[in-house]
Design a protein that fits this description.
Length: 265
């Protein structure tokens, strides 16, 4: 009997993934990764910096999964890792994550639906479970003034649009860079400044219950990074924005005196 050369029926053929979740990790951090069970429509790209420090036993179960690809990188820095994801992801949509976050596949796919509803959409922002406010708006157009809270694993991008615009993460910002925070906000603002559309939706894409670097309001290096971030995004308007930022966050900064120091640089 001759084997049939006909292609399988479209209904039985496995569907190509729609979303790549790019998980950035460093050395032993790969041991923290806990991925959800395989879900149609989603694949995972593990971007491993300092691979020589990674636990071999932690890599094995990840590399054994058909929906996971582990890539060892020579670079250092979170922005460099995210930029590799922009280059290497082979799906229409890309969501960014870190190695200590719990991911919600149903929420990720729900956020992906926003792109099928709006062909002009370049960036869709969801929420972490701990931060979604009660009564959040069904959808909110993103601007430089309401995007500061966006971070992994809350945002997803249309890769074709990002690549066509030549956009990437600024390697001067993010963990492992000269300025240790701000890479996600700057990338979001660069997208918006390029005239591309970003919208936030009340969709939970994951959880990150413990503090992150951006929650640190006492380290002088982090505060200087915040100043640099504002300058990078707002240019000549940065002093005005720094003043408004200092007034808004003066209690977190430790009082009006510290807020004034932040404003004065």
């Amino acid at each position: 009997m001759q084997a049939s050369s006909a292609e399988p029926d479209a209904q039985t053929r496995p569907k190509a993934p729609l979303v790549t979740v790019a998980v950035s990790t460093l050395g032993q951090g790969i041991s923290r990764i806990r991925l959800p069970a395989a879900q149609a429509g989603i694949c995972y790209l593990i971007l491993l910096q300092r691979p020589e420090e990674a636990a071999v036993e932690a890599r094995k179960p990840l590399e054994a999964r058909l929906d996971v690809q582990v890539i060892a990188l020579d670079s250092i820095g979170l922005s460099n890792s995210r930029n590799e994801a922009l280059i290497r992801a082979g799906t229409p949509l890309l969501l960014f994550a870190d190695d200590d976050q719990a991911l919600d596949p149903a929420g990720i796919l729900a956020l992906a639906d926003a792109f099928s509803q709006d062909p002009d959409l370049t960036l869709a922002a969801g929420w972490r479970a701990e931060r979604l406010p009660e009564g959040a708006s069904p959808r909110q157009r993103l601007t430089r003034f309401n995007s500061g809270r966006i971070c992994a694993p809350e945002f997803m991008v249309n890769l074709d649009r990002i690549r066509a615009a030549g956009l990437c993460f600024d390697p001067e910002f993010g963990l492992g860079a000269h300025h240790g925070i701000g890479e996600d906000y700057i990338f979001t603002c660069d997208i918006l400044s390029a005239g591309l559309k970003g919208v936030a939706f009340p969709v939970i894409t994951g959880s990150h219950p413990h503090d992150s670097t951006g929650d640190n309001w006492s380290d002088p290096r982090i505060m200087r990074a915040r100043q640099a971030m504002i300058t990078r995004v707002f240019g000549p308007w940065a002093p005005v924005i720094r003043l408004a930022y200092a007034l808004k966050h003066r209690r977190r900064m430790g009082g009006m005196g510290q807020g004034l120091r932040f404003f004065l640089g």
